[in-house]
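Hi support team,

I'm filing this because I wasn't sure whether my run with alpha-D-ribofuranose finished correctly. The job status page said complete, but I'd like someone to confirm that the output block is well-formed before I use it downstream. Pasting the exact inputs I used:
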Amino acid sequence: MPLQKPEPVIAVVGSLNIDLIAYTARVPGAGETVIGDRFVMGFGGKGANQAVMAARLGAHVSMVGALGDDVYAGMTVDNLIAQRVDAAHVARVAGSSGVAPIWVEPDGTNRIIVVPGANDEVDPAVAAGAVRALRPAVVIGQLEIPQAVTAAAFRAAREVGAATILNPAPAAALDPDLLAGADWLIPNETEFAILAGVEAFDPVDDSALAAFARRIRARFVVTLGSRGAAVVTTSGSVERVPAIPVKPVDTTGAGDAFVGAFAFGLAAGLDELGAVRLGIACASDSVTRLGTQSSFASRDGAAAIVARVLGGA
Ligand code: RIB
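And here is everything the job wrote out:
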């Protein structure tokens, strides 16, 4: 069955970073220096990554955010344009753009420090105005820009009838205003445990997921790494979608591939399980390649993933 809306309009209100990725046999301890294997500079930021994934799948995506006045700003805008993401709502402010030093170990696991820079300067009224002007089907937000900005953008989304997806990453206590404006919440398992106040979350146990879903207004999907993802249905039951078995080389940005693809799926007319399957397929694919946006499927690759998911293979 073809997608109902193969080119939906999506707005991503969020972060843009330059990723400075070191691949290393092991990460250093305190006071220690280790020699790494490889270094890559790439385009990242959870917001920009999600925008790029949705654009590769065929959405018309606009990025709403801010860059600094440094050398990274121009190259980041050029990258958005090359990725066919509209950069007209990316402001330029004084100071540094966002950067993210990242360490990746041989099993693909990563450790990330985000230094937000310009991401902290996104203006709430400007972000809300952009959403009103764009009239998207879906607005996506994360926690790498101030929560009040995303809350304002989500209020504007409601005015124009857009669905809102909050990826509460990196983990933080949520502003009640922001949570109230989210139609979908997509944490990973660490973020879920913090949000739900669960001390030892057992990822195979449905009861904590179902209990949390009863406490919030938003619909709820949790990503579980190599275990795939779980979605709590409207009737309160937990449906699980397994990950596709792959050999991971770099998991950086896999959660963003999931969120961008899930948003595309919903906006394109898939039901929630179809959107989760598309998210899992794109995230599993991304961990087989190095880097963040550079690890995401190409437009042709993304089209092949859509065809596989729609075909049920
Ligand atoms: O989710 C991965 C992303 O987190 C990286 O691109 C990095 O910039 C941080 O935002």
